[in-house]
Amino acid sequence: MAVTFKVPGKTSSNKTQLTSLQLNENAYSYKVEGVGTCWVMGPIIDKISITIPVGDEDARQVIRESLMDLIKPGMAESDFSPGEKGSYKFAINCTEPTTKQKVLIQADPTSSTAKNFLRLEFNPSKLGPIGLNVFKDRLLEITTGAVTWSDVISAGTVSKIDVAADLLNVQTSTLVFICNVPGKNHVYYGLDGKIETAYLGVKKGKSSRQYVYDKLQEQVDTETTATFDGVHHARAEMVHGGGIKLTNLAKLKANLFERIEVIHPGPAPTGTDPILWELFLDSCRQRGINAALALLDDELAGKFKSQLKIANVNSWKPKELWDRWGNTVAKSGLLEP
Questions:
Q1: What's 259's DSSP letter?
Q2: pTM score, two decimals?
């Protein structure tokens, strides 16, 4: 499906330009007055960590020696580099030559209670099925035949997975969020005073497991090629703690997108002050919706609450996103030997 968007100019004149994108993975769309049609893509697997048991000590030693040899000075190939060890004794990065995406390979955990010897971490959506197939062959080489991708599928455990959905033609700063899990919300603003990232349901001493951020701004800041050719898009990302067999990944029952609600409010309700509406939305982002409504008289609160309710139903549809989860896993190539 070809869709045309207006995007900020990429030249010094900064004039608005048109760009056409072919959308194949859209889950649904909705319209916002003054903005146009917004498309919600996904879901995608943004990052996955898989641990694999290696019971034979001889095989373990082969893997240790292989990882050390690949990054020895003067012996390392261009697509191997030292990796972050974390809680492992050995680690390398394997760079897939086509996509330039890195796969982190860690081995030999420092904890005596760890069950699995080998750990892989990568971004399947960026690596792509073709890049993943290249890595599957490399894994056999790296482990000197000790671990095949069939072993990963049959014995691998997903220790962590990040699942995301992109909202195209949507600026993060125009959204209002509700978190359906306990915790505090932390919001971060850019230099222009607009919201760039909202961490939702943050628990003390732990990182957020659900957040929404300005993906286009992140790509600009990191000088990464824009995913959708410069079209504004927000990304809603959920982190699952894992502990599930890789073979059961497509059967994940909990709808991760039900943890939050993303509201795209649109313009002020008919007959109300647009400036007051914008101030109210800012108050929602700072105080929460109920606290912001409590500051208004009953009549105005009723109008604003009704507008938010309608927008919520239109812009955030967790079921329609999660109905595509099985297809996402299938197309990732993770379960293909």
A1: G
A2: 0.91
pLDDT of residue 8: 67
CA atoms within 13 A on the CB side of 146: 22
- Type of residue at 6: K
Tell me the C-alpha distance between 71 and 270, whole Å: 65
Which of 253, 238, 250, 242 lies closest to 181 in space, CA to CA?
238
User: DSSP states of 60-110 as a string?
Assistant: HHHHHHHHHHHTSTTT--TTEEE---TTEEEEEEEE-TTT--EEEEEEEES
Q: How confident is the model at residue 230 (pLDDT cuts 50, 70, 90)?
A: confident
Per-residue pLDDT band for 166 (boundaries 50, 70, 90) equals very high
Q: Which helix (H) or strand (E) holds 332?
A: helix 325-332
Residue type, 250: A
The candidate with the shortest Cα–Cα distance to 36, out of 168, 127, 181, is: 168
What is the number of alpha carbons within 13 Å of residue 212 lying toward its C-beta? 31
What dihedral do alpha carbons 52, 57, 61, 64 form, nearest 10°? 30
Distance (Å, rounded) from C-alpha 119 to C-alpha 308? 44
| 292, 295, 301, 306: CA torsion to nearest 10 | 0
Q: In which band, very low, low, confident or very high, does the pLDDT at 306 lie, cut at 50, 70 and 90?
A: very high
In the chain, where the domains are located? 2-45+162-321, 54-155
CB 168, CB 231: distance < 8 Å: yes
